[in-house]
Amino acid sequence: MDADKLHDECAIVGVYGPAEAAKLTYLGLYALQHRGQESTGIVSSDGETMHAEVGMGRVNDVFTEDRLARLPGYLAIGHNRYATTGLSTLRNAQPLFVDYARGSLAIAHNGNLVNAARMRTSLEADGSIFRSTSDTEVILHLMARSQAGHLLDSVVEALQQVQGAYSLLIMNPHEIIAVRDPYGFRPLCLGRLQTGHVVASETCALDLIEATYVRDVQPGELVRISQEGVQSYFPFPTRPPQHCVFELIYFARPDSQVFGHNVYLTRKAFGRQLAREAPVDADVVIPVPDSGLPAALGYAEEAGIPFDTGLIRNHYVGRTFIEPQQAIRHFGVKIKLNTIHGLLEGKRVVIVDDSIVRGTTSKKLVSMLRQAGAKEVHMRISSPPITHPCLYGIDTPTHEELIASSYSVEHICSYFQADSLAYLSHEGMMEVARQQEQGYCSACFTGQYPVHTPWRDDLHQLTLFDKQGF
Amino acid sequence: MDADKLHDECAIVGVYGPAEAAKLTYLGLYALQHRGQESTGIVSSDGETMHAEVGMGRVNDVFTEDRLARLPGYLAIGHNRYATTGLSTLRNAQPLFVDYARGSLAIAHNGNLVNAARMRTSLEADGSIFRSTSDTEVILHLMARSQAGHLLDSVVEALQQVQGAYSLLIMNPHEIIAVRDPYGFRPLCLGRLQTGHVVASETCALDLIEATYVRDVQPGELVRISQEGVQSYFPFPTRPPQHCVFELIYFARPDSQVFGHNVYLTRKAFGRQLAREAPVDADVVIPVPDSGLPAALGYAEEAGIPFDTGLIRNHYVGRTFIEPQQAIRHFGVKIKLNTIHGLLEGKRVVIVDDSIVRGTTSKKLVSMLRQAGAKEVHMRISSPPITHPCLYGIDTPTHEELIASSYSVEHICSYFQADSLAYLSHEGMMEVARQQEQGYCSACFTGQYPVHTPWRDDLHQLTLFDKQGF
Amino acid sequence: MDADKLHDECAIVGVYGPAEAAKLTYLGLYALQHRGQESTGIVSSDGETMHAEVGMGRVNDVFTEDRLARLPGYLAIGHNRYATTGLSTLRNAQPLFVDYARGSLAIAHNGNLVNAARMRTSLEADGSIFRSTSDTEVILHLMARSQAGHLLDSVVEALQQVQGAYSLLIMNPHEIIAVRDPYGFRPLCLGRLQTGHVVASETCALDLIEATYVRDVQPGELVRISQEGVQSYFPFPTRPPQHCVFELIYFARPDSQVFGHNVYLTRKAFGRQLAREAPVDADVVIPVPDSGLPAALGYAEEAGIPFDTGLIRNHYVGRTFIEPQQAIRHFGVKIKLNTIHGLLEGKRVVIVDDSIVRGTTSKKLVSMLRQAGAKEVHMRISSPPITHPCLYGIDTPTHEELIASSYSVEHICSYFQADSLAYLSHEGMMEVARQQEQGYCSACFTGQYPVHTPWRDDLHQLTLFDKQGF
Amino acid sequence: MDADKLHDECAIVGVYGPAEAAKLTYLGLYALQHRGQESTGIVSSDGETMHAEVGMGRVNDVFTEDRLARLPGYLAIGHNRYATTGLSTLRNAQPLFVDYARGSLAIAHNGNLVNAARMRTSLEADGSIFRSTSDTEVILHLMARSQAGHLLDSVVEALQQVQGAYSLLIMNPHEIIAVRDPYGFRPLCLGRLQTGHVVASETCALDLIEATYVRDVQPGELVRISQEGVQSYFPFPTRPPQHCVFELIYFARPDSQVFGHNVYLTRKAFGRQLAREAPVDADVVIPVPDSGLPAALGYAEEAGIPFDTGLIRNHYVGRTFIEPQQAIRHFGVKIKLNTIHGLLEGKRVVIVDDSIVRGTTSKKLVSMLRQAGAKEVHMRISSPPITHPCLYGIDTPTHEELIASSYSVEHICSYFQADSLAYLSHEGMMEVARQQEQGYCSACFTGQYPVHTPWRDDLHQLTLFDKQGF
User: Fold this and answer.
1) What's the CATH number where C103 sits?
2) Per residue of chain B (470 residues), what is the pLDDT tens digit?
3) I need a labelling partner for B209 at 20 to 30 A (CA). Which of A362, A417, B47, D189 fits?
4) Which of C153, C137, C136, C154 shows the shortest CA–CA distance to C145?
């Protein structure tokens, strides 16, 4: 987990059909661990009774043989959650699991509802009580208040009242419903198992459990998986797609296919485009491991400059580490990355990263490269400057903390003490991204938010909800 | 925890005023550990923000220095819960802590609502969702649906709709409300601290934190503790008191005052009455430690037979212990109790216990005493035969498991292979108990339930609610 | 664990014969938990390979089903250790388990060697290395240096070089050797199982696993249990027995037989003798629970004063508890003990305890009784004043901390603010104790140490050895 | 940790001088985590008292703020140990920490003594007892038996009696001695801190704590670091150097300098040499991440074939993961690695790895690449076939498990179903490796063991020592 990266909120996985649905869900969550390490959970059902196991920590830590054994049945949904400060409590861990008029219900959500605070106030005014501080609980309350006879109808009725980003899995004892919001902000794909079906945030989860990728759940589509097979519905008005372009830049695993794109190849293409836009005379191109690797390869290929790996990553770094009090400078980065002695000595180095958030790591990297003897350090970023927070499910630092929202590229370059700094242009990024799909949300680069949101109310909604908890 | 005893559901403690309210609450819960070892929790408030720490296990295990430090503020409520199979999950641990229209709310409950299943069904039909399987959550939903402007009014409105046993603490960020149901099934007392007030299930909690006992919260009384001091309300129609007589027999700590009684002296008086009703020519009176001690002393005094302690208890017995597979008989009892060699050799022994539930322990004790050389074994029980399950907050085994509901005293005596067996008469018990208070619930001995309850629906309501969980 | 009591160092248990030797050893250790809660361990053998499981904490915490399953075989020895500050580390936990010239070896020790520091220095000078700070390791080194061909001979050779108190179990893959030092300071008894033999510190361990008590291992006796059955040897010169009289006063469980005495009846007899020596005109006799109970009963019977239980013990008190910072007086005692309201009001109370070490608890108890309304408080102690530290295996506070080593009985009485204070006389104690056995060590009351010890060197030997550790 | 790789036994770090020696040692161990994840430990000293903290698990798990705070002082040594089955117990965790005639002593060892079993037998015959099953304890016993007056002399005396591989750190309360065996099998380097000195297995540990690399400890050199500064001794007869060539191939971190080599550049050079020796007509060169990366880059550069990263590694894979029972084939590899869709479609792929041990992973990788559409799969290994076990500190599988010890390259290629398979030649490897240093041990490739070892006795010595343990 890199403190200087943006982070996605969640991964979701649903499995219907096979005898060990929870174990396949567990594997899917394992493959999607990069989308959230705060908490993880699975709810399974044998067709009658639902079983839940939810805990703080990674898939690997939470799910023991014992806990998986307590999750019998042929359908299951699971969730990984990203750790944000303050909200990181078991009561917010998903899937949420409740009883309501039509029985038991579990829900797993990737995204963020922009009108959650308002809906919550209104539901509370009508007598609802909330046990979590998560926006997802709003959907449950809306479903519970629906008078619709079928689960499907109550889901539709509830979702018609919320706005924002959601890829959702909803499960009762005998069916799973997968939904993607009409804008399709977050990804969600559908796969086939020998004896059933799987829905997951990314295709790499399908690969691991040897499911065949069928297609993406479409923006605005609701897929019901039950004894009657897989049924598709489009209950919402059509909207122009707003796929999160940052999935392609950083979030998704490079071996996934997202929004119809091969993520790895797209990242290489971003690197190539960057080389065309911001060439430099240099001796070697190196990536910031591991996220800058594909773009660095693309840049090197396009620029005809040798590629090498000048920074080595310590893969054993855990989430906590103890600093000596008589501190040594640049420690947080040094424990993770080290330079190769001699390799960069006297060289003109291009260092490629996928994005810059606060800029703290980048500054330290430039300094490390100089100490390693680099004659010139040219930083290249395979996405545009991030200037605005995300409202659709990405944990973004405040406006003030986003370095590019306050400073010009020149200023940042000089702050980093780099010889040059260039970002991929918005146009260049879009040109690459649009080769297969048209509609993207790039509000974090432009501030043009596709879903109108009552700014003052909702931007801080999570904070408002938060209280110390369980 | 004796597997052959009845168990109370909970202890509750509330503290208002002092700077370290959570720590005093913690101590109160410590003193009331005997009323529930499954889970424990505290919610505190500094007047604005509420903080919660809830965990599975005993007070001593759950509350570390760190966790208590996360509970700042001058008001707090706490709860100990008794472990029942299947329901023993964190999601049912109390205090429950939620958000609703009027802000944050915590609730701690001792008792059982007889119309909880029906109310729950009705609330769900109106759109409520339930995250626990506890009857207590019903009260929260009713409060959330109240249109009343003040917390107090919403509590009254909610409680007017429920029936059964409840001693409750309800807290928002700046006040605590303590309520006892109109029948006063479960105890609840009020104390004064140097700098505030305390409410607790039993007076022994007051003793520990050096609070002065003021009085019991009255049946049907609602006490509000806030910046405006302590205010008393009687919003419910008056009912004949139905104090749980079993608190006097077994549940309450002997050093507590409950329903105006000194528990220890009452138990001695039960023993004396038993000696008058069921005398026997014997050499020594011994208690089943520790619960039979006061009654055995009373019996011995009244009968003029020497008192001694023929059974020694191993105080280090934990809740789990591992049996050899090639099992030795009577293990569960032997690990807890052992006889004094020689003491009982050739003696005619009266062994006094407070109650018999399934009879399994009693049978083993008679056998142990015979092996220790007792010439005669006369068992005396300082309460009547338990023939009916409790509906008001006590975890009772099923009808079939209550030995006295199926068998006569003669039959039981012969099953125990005792020389004689006698229970305290219902009249005798009541005569002793009524010396200070009139109204008691003794339905577990008589089957005469004071609050009409739709038998089939509600008896198993907890089971119906239960599902595998968090 | 009472902070104001003396504490024994250890319990030892050995089982030879049955298929589940480790499980029976575990049960024996469970019964002897009162002799040490710091660490516990078992070494078992299937006749060829030895297996060890040792951990910090109580029997109940350390031994899970899994760990017991890793201890197969038909012979096993186990050990409980008492927690002393600083030394409480896993490296000192027993049984110690090593390899030496004749294979693998495990040892479990109750007692203390007075010449351990000197022997250790001498062994180190000869090239031995020590991994623990325990005196027990000295014995292992001496055995390892023995040229004797048989385990038995090497044990004898080693023990001929050490002085002090030891009840020992030594085990190789196919035999167990039990030894008691020539003075017999610490107890050790021999029992018979249906399919084997058991050795244990106290008979209560035999009771639990349904072994028949055969006899005590004699002072200076070495018992070898192997395929050849039980063989007895007396390899050491005979010494006058020096049984630890404190085992009878406090250490041993009341349901044990120790040194041929019924512990419970002996304690009652101490109480009776105390009543004869120090009578008082009073209304009620109460014990300090639980250790003062038998003596209080004896006192009450002899004095003809009614016995009652005026102090109630909270059995849920763990080893840690958190004090509010704005502390309430007398907290450490109040969390453990509370008075019965009203019972002592206006009464002249005799309170009986078995011993006084630092006096801190006693002072608080007198104050609690006065607050409970006692008109007079007469403290009676069923053993003489403790004036000297033990050198033979009991963890005694320093000379300065022993209240009776610095102050007269009158002074202590006035410090306690008791109306009177009386200890059992040394003569009275001995008269009772000698009814079955002659030789006792009562050095803690007299300073007459039966085994000559180089005072300055060895008194602090454990401290000298101690270093921070594993 | 890759199950199909060889594993080094240990890392060692020593720090002398700065106020927080233990924290710097901890950081050094963090940087060397790749050399052992089974257990870790640090012993520190303030010049008088030594303190030890040792635990099972990784640096990150074992060392909390609390544990590091218990390690005061200005000198410290630390150790990481590799997890091997059966021996993986706390009693074998290092640094070993003991008392002997000259006080306290700690030792940390990387390597393996070939005559340990024989020495152990002889030491036991002379009365030594062993508490671990590690060969390192032999050195302690030899030192303890030395009559030498100084630590230094006793170290020399002890080491003159052992044979094999050792890079050692030995510490008493006020000095650290670093030694490397006369053949210099394992690396050890010396660095300078602003306020002191550091010794570590690899230079990457120096980088992290911002120490300056001074030089390697020489084969046969003994370095004493104390108040008198750094003193160098060469007490052993000179031997031809036998540096472990596998450190260059796989063990060392690529950012380290080992035996005077830049590890990363050496690996690239192995790849280049491999390209010259075993060229192939192909479309893309991909590494097996992460260990095959430098060699793949070198191969690609030399061969003029595009480099790409066709396999993506899941960095969240823990050491345990739970397989569904209705297993999916190739799971162990799939959870760690996945292919990039489309990237390899129809391509002729060269896949480069650093070595093959059992061949299980390689076979699965070939199959994964074919499933990803590769038209041809050419496997290239940047080291020769491993045919013999290591006797000098590397945990090698048995002869039977080493695929290359039983099968020809052709056979292995056909077993992998690869289109071609080529290893780097021994000559080629040596040519690259000898560019800076002459003497290497490459016994795992040739069976020519530089230190004569009594084969039958010592090969299995660890197994012989092993018993179940603490």
Assistant:
1) 3.60.20.10
2) 455 677 657 999 999 999 999 999 999 999 999 999 889 999 999 999 999 999 988 998 899 988 999 999 999 999 999 855 444 577 888 999 999 988 999 999 999 999 998 999 999 999 999 988 888 999 999 999 998 889 999 999 999 999 999 999 999 999 999 999 999 999 999 999 999 999 999 999 999 999 999 999 999 999 999 999 999 999 999 999 999 999 999 999 999 999 989 999 999 999 999 999 999 999 999 999 989 999 999 999 999 999 999 999 988 876 566 766 654 545 678 888 999 988 999 999 999 999 999 998 999 999 999 999 999 999 999 999 999 999 888 878 888 889 999 999 999 999 999 999 999 999 999 999 988 677 999 999 999 998 866 544 444 444 433 333 33
3) B47
4) C154
* A304: contact with D, CB 8 A cutoff: no
Q: How many domains does chain B have?
A: 2
CB C310 within 8 A of CB C369: yes
Q: Are residues C397 and C279 in the same domain?
A: yes
Cβ atoms of C119 and C140 closer than 8 Å = no
In this structure, are A235 and A115 located in the same domain? Answer: yes
Residues C233 and C307 in one domain: no
Contact, A243 vs A262, CB < 8 A? no
| Chain D residues 96-125 with a CB less than 8 Å from chain C | 96-101, 104-105, 121, 124-125
* pLDDT value of position C316: 80
Are C203 and C321 part of one and the same domain? no
The predicted-structure confidence for A283-292, as pLDDT tens digits, reads as follows 999 999 989 9
Answer whether C touches A (≥3 Cβ pairs < 8 Å): no
Instruction: Compute the distance between CA of residue C357 and CA of residue A204 in angstroms, rounded to an integer.
Output: 68
Please indicate, yes or no, whether residues A281 and A359 belong to a single structural domain of this protein.
Answer: yes
In a domain, D2, yes or no: no
- Asked whether residue D1 is assigned to any structural domain, the reply reads no
The ipTM estimated for the assembled molecules is 0.90
Query: For the residues of A38-79, what is the DSSP string, one character each?
Result: SEEEEEEESSS-EEEEEEES-HHHH--HHHHHT--SSEEEEE
Last residue of one domain, picked from the residues A212, A242, A272: A242
CA torsion sign for D368, D374, D376, D382 is negative
**CATH number of the domain residue A417 falls in:** 3.40.50.2020
CA distance A53 to chain D (A): 16
Contact between residue C142 and residue C119 where contact means Cβ atoms under 8 Å apart: yes
- Looking at the structure, do residues D235 and D334 belong to the same domain, yes or no? no
Residue of chain B whose alpha carbon sits nearest to that of C28: B335
Asked about A10 being catalytic, the answer comes back as yes
**Does the CB of A262 have a partner CB in chain D at under 8 Å?**
yes
Is C120 inside a domain boundary?
Answer: yes
DSSP A120-138: HHHHHHTT--BSS--THHH
Last residue of a domain, one of C240, C269, C301: C240
Mark the ranges of chain A whose per-residue pLDDT is less than 50: 1, 85-87, 327, 329, 455-470
B238 and B270 inside one domain: no
Instruction: Report the distance separating Cα D15 and Cα D23, nearest Å.
Output: 9
Q: Which of C237, C238, C235 is nearest to C156 (CA)?
A: C235
pTM for this prediction: 0.87
For B126, nearest residue in chain A (alpha carbons): A145
- CA–CA separation, B433 and B266 (whole Å): 7
Q: Among positive and negative, which fits the CA dihedral B343, B345, B350, B354?
A: positive
* C100 to D130: CB separation less than 8 angstroms, yes or no: yes
Q: Which domain holds residue B196?
A: 7-242
Q: Are residues C422 and C282 in the same domain?
A: yes
Residue of A nearest to B105 (CA): A129
Q: Do A340 and D254 touch (CB under 8 A)?
A: yes
- Rounded to a whole number, what is the distance in Å from the CA of C215 to chain B's nearest CA? 15
Q: Say if C467 falls within a structural domain.
A: no
D156: phi then psi, degrees, rounded to nearest 5: -60, -45
